[in-house]
Write a structure and sequence with these properties.
Chain lengths: 401, 225, 86
């Protein structure tokens, strides 16, 4: 039975680029993707900056070049692009050569199309184009991605809010460790929609300016969109194919905060549990971590809770940490997958990414994120947090091989 | 999908379905017994309120939940009544699935933002446009801090549930798990929740316990009352 | 003032799904949050929506919200002041 799980490919599309290479360049140049939306048709167009992918749906179609020109939601298109890049990056040409699965995650599914249909339909049940709702279900975007990649052995969808794709990565690792699959495409995708923009606005946790994670003056999050996928492979699969290893998925943990539907507990109990479980499965200790890619949404609540949890677990040996959401916005279900790609890049290129927009240390914390790109420190082990509504907290640990 | 079912029990432990609760067709059953039935044709909202009052659950937050969470919550309340909790609630897992995610509530949220003039999105509705909030509600109620997850599958998938929970037990990630299916879309609803426990193979109070395996999961899901 | 308080109590019960309560169960002077009714942050947001929807009042900051939403009476006073201005 395979005990170790490796990452052999990454794929990403988000506000700062449509491939892993472009995204890396943007980060190096401190180029963020936050601004007012161009493609999302919303009355809030100039109220809230977002991390929009800089391609219209037609342009995404051209990038995807789907086999059938069926109705594809923006969520599915983003997922197809990132998942395909991950497979190519891993050098996988013959998908059926080994037992291969797809675990995708999403919160909105095909909502971007559904909300076009709805206003017509609600006024007159006979109007509205039905083709706009057939892609609605969360599972549909996963099925579209699977069909695009030719994956048939195992397909499933996770929906646990902002921890969704981190949980997808966890499940993928377990399927490999239990010899059910040899390799698995794991991650998530979410598109910007009026549904989420208005919903988050009703919770009053959106920032009307560029978000400032872990800053004393932070005032909320910027929503984002995108997709991030990695390829997990078993030791056996790598040996047979003489694969290039990007890094190892060393540990993971999930726990429930059990405090409130949308707020995290003030002492970060659930976060601490998830982080501890990840250490347990990895066999590593806090002092082994070189970089934390934090969940860091920029909301008063999350950053305080997460900051407290980091202080509690790491004591005065806290590693460098940052949130990359001031580059991409909060991509909801895709965030775990997108940030897994960032974690892989950190290890591959020995970089620690800056927390853009940070100036003032939070008065409740003794720690601060890094605010410049660090390239002269060894990056052996990276910890990535994804904390979702409903108190669903997941932590992943990636290690240099 | 291969499941490796021959290795599902470790040397000294066995996994049993200690209890199960099924709610569908205006009927509630706990293990083998029907415990509640509402004759009248009712909306799910009214049915659930009737059941809540009948069950004498004292938890006013119930009324703020959306229908999916109400269904999951009340099924788990009946399942966990008189449950003997261990000191460590991070040893309890919660793994749920359905096929429509939170679509039932998504529609309600969409209605509140569709009219550009009468435009009042409700934060209380938006909160429930994620199926895992139902998990959150159950965890908040019982202070469960173990592993939890929500999966979308086209139909009730007994082998998926078995495989996932079995793994959590095998790896000592949890010692007990609430798992199952909670589906609510328009007037269609059904929930089937299992309380699965890890027990000593020769445990004294295990006589007649149902072994946790795919066949028994299927049998219970398909029970008619 | 008393009329607004009675009306407000009914509207709060409806907006926050306080099913098992009647207006008589709510003390107009008791705090709405933490103690008293023990409402939470989502309830606070819903009360903001109620004020805007039924009374045309917008709460702009968290500090303003804390003052206005302290009790049913403070909400009623705020509504009366707003009605006098307009």
């Amino acid at each position: 039975m395979s005990e170790r799980v490796f990452i052999t490919g990454t794929g990403i599309i988000c506000a700062i680029g449509n491939t892993t290479q472009v995204v890396l360049e943007s980060i190096r140049q401190s180029k963020h993707g936050i601004g007012f939306p161009t493609f999302l048709n919303t009355i809030h167009q100039f109220d809230f900056p977002v991390g929009e992918v800089k391609y219209s749906n037609n342009e995404l179609y051209d990038l995807v070049q789907p086999k059938k020109k069926t109705n594809l939601s923006r969520t599915a298109l983003l997922g197809m692009i990132a998942a395909k890049e991950a497979l190519k990056n891993a050098g996988i040409e013959n998908i059926s050569e080994f037992r291969t699965g797809l675990i995708s995650a999403t919160t909105v599914g095909g909502m971007d199309k559904t909300e076009i249909f709805f206003p017509s339909f609600i006024n007159n049940p006979n109007s509205g184009r039905l083709r706009n709702i057939i892609t609605h279900d969360c599972g549909d975007s996963t099925e579209q991605i699977a069909e695009h990649l030719g994956i048939k052995d195992y397909i499933t969808t996770i929906s646990t809010a902002c921890s969704s794709s981190a949980n997808a990565i966890m499940l993928g690792a377990r399927l490999i460790k239990n010899n059910i699959l040899d390799r698995v495409v794991v991650g998530g995708t979410d598109a910007l929609t009026k549904f989420t923009l208005n919903g988050f606005n009703s919770l009053m946790i959106l920032d009307k300016s560029h978000c400032r994670p872990f800053d004393e003056t932070r005032n909320g999050l910027n929503l984002g969109e995108g997709a991030g996928f990695v390829i997990l492979e078993s030791e056996k699969s790598i040996k047979i194919n003489n694969k290039n290893i990007i890094c190892e998925l060393k540990g993971y943990g999930n726990a429930c905060d059990a405090f409130h539907q949308t707020a995290s507990s003030p002492d970060g109990y659930g976060a601490c549990l998830a982080i501890s479980k990840a250490f347990e499965t990895s066999g590593l200790n806090p002092e082994d971590i070189d970089y934390i890619n934090a969940h860091g949404t920029g909301t008063p609540n999350n950053d305080l809770t997460e900051g407290k949890a980091i202080e509690k677990i790491f004591g005065n040996k806290d590693p460098m940490f940052s949130s990359t959401k001031s580059y991409t916005g909060h991509t909801l279900a895709a965030s775990g997958g997108i940030e897994a790609v960032f974690s892989c890049l950190a290890i591959q290129h020995q970089l620690i990414f800056p927390n853009l927009n940070f100036s003032n240390q939070m008065k409740e914390l003794e720690i601060s994120p890094v605010n410049t790109l660090i390239h002269n420190k060894p990056v052996r082990n990276v910890l990535s947090n994804s904390f979702g509504f409903g108190g669903n907290n997941t932590t992943l640990i990636f290690s240099k091989y | 999908m291969q499941c490796g079912s021959s290795v599902y029990q470790t040397m000294n432990k066995k996994y049993i379905i200690e209890k199960y609760c099924i709610i569908r067709d205006n009927t509630v059953s706990l293990d083998d017994k029907e415990i509640y039935h509402d004759e009248k044709e009712k909306s799910f909202s009214d049915f659930s309120k009737g059941l809540y009052k009948y069950s004498k659950i004292d938890y006013p937050k119930f009324y703020k939940m959306d229908n999916l969470s109400k269904l999951g919550f009340i099924t788990s309340e009946l399942l966990l009544k008189d449950h003997e909790w261990s000191a460590n609630r991070d040893e309890t897992g919660l793994i749920l699935c359905n096929s429509s995610a939170s679509l039932d509530t998504d529609i309600n949220h969409q209605k509140t933002i569709s009219n550009k003039i009468d435009y009042f999105p409700s934060p209380a509705i938006f909160v429930y446009t994620l199926p895992n909030i139902m998990i959150g509600e159950i965890c908040i109620r019982h202070k469960i801090t173990g592993e939890s997850a929500f999966y979308i599958t086209e139909h009730f998938d007994s082998s998926f549930i078995f495989q996932y929970v079995n793994y959590l037990f095998e790896k000592n990630i949890v010692n007990e798990c609430i798992a199952g299916w909670v589906e609510k879309y328009k007037e269609k609803y059904e929930s089937v929740l299992f309380l699965i426990k890890k027990k000593e193979k020769n445990c004294k109070d295990c006589k007649g316990n149902i072994i946790f395996d795919i066949e028994n999961i299927e049998k219970i899901y398909n029970k008619k009352f | 003032m008393e009329e607004i308080i009675i009306q407000l109590k009914k509207e709060i019960i409806e907006a926050l799904n306080l099913e098992e309560m009647s207006p008589d169960d709510i003390d107009a002077d008791a705090p709405l949050f933490i103690e008293g009714l023990g409402l939470d942050s989502i309830d606070a947001l819903e009360l903001n929506v109620l004020l805007e929807k039924k009374y045309g009042i917008k709460i702009n900051t968290a500090e303003e919200g804390k003052k206005v939403l302290h009790s049913v009476r403070s909400m009623a006073e705020h509504i009366l002041n707003h009605q006098k201005k307009n």
